[in-house]
Amino acid sequence: MRWLIIAVMTLGMTGCGGGQHDDLDQFVRDAGQGMRGKVEPLPEVKPYEPFPYEAFNLPDPFAPRKLKPAASGGGGFQPDLNRRKEPLESFELEKLKMVGTLEQNHVIYALIKAPDNSLSRVKVGNHMGVNFGVITSISEQEIKLTEIIEDSAGEWSEKPSSLTLIDESNAGQQKK
């Protein structure tokens, strides 16, 4: 009986190993025939030519430096650097807000709100902003200033600026 079971199983196994994938095996054998690979020739390698570096005497382009002053010798105006700074000169002009005006003894004052929420009263001639801004005129809607700015060559130039009245309820914009 054992021999009969073994014989039947062997016969069944040989039936499973037939040509089920013969077509796939034939395709793989035939796929590579007639194909010839073509490899492009390598490009010609140019010989190395050394380049002499002769820029040792030039200034370092990444080092911070100021340009040399113009031939005018830096004449002209500049701010008084020895003057005692006023409280509003520690803030950038863009961060200061004009919130109102008032008049006392025929002098018009502007009310300025600083980023630290302090309120200051200024008049024509006062300074404000980090660029040595001097108030030149005050109206009910605007403060006009003249800032003194140093360029990269060390020359000072004047720049007109202004601060407009901010309506806190509408969160209006100021201009410079």
From TrEMBL:
InterPro entries: PilP. PROSITE patterns: PROKAR_LIPOPROTEIN (PS51257). It comes from the Bacteria. This is Type 4 fimbrial biogenesis protein PilP. It comes from Sulfurimicrobium lacus. The lineage of its organism: Bacteria, Pseudomonadati, Pseudomonadota, Betaproteobacteria, Nitrosomonadales.
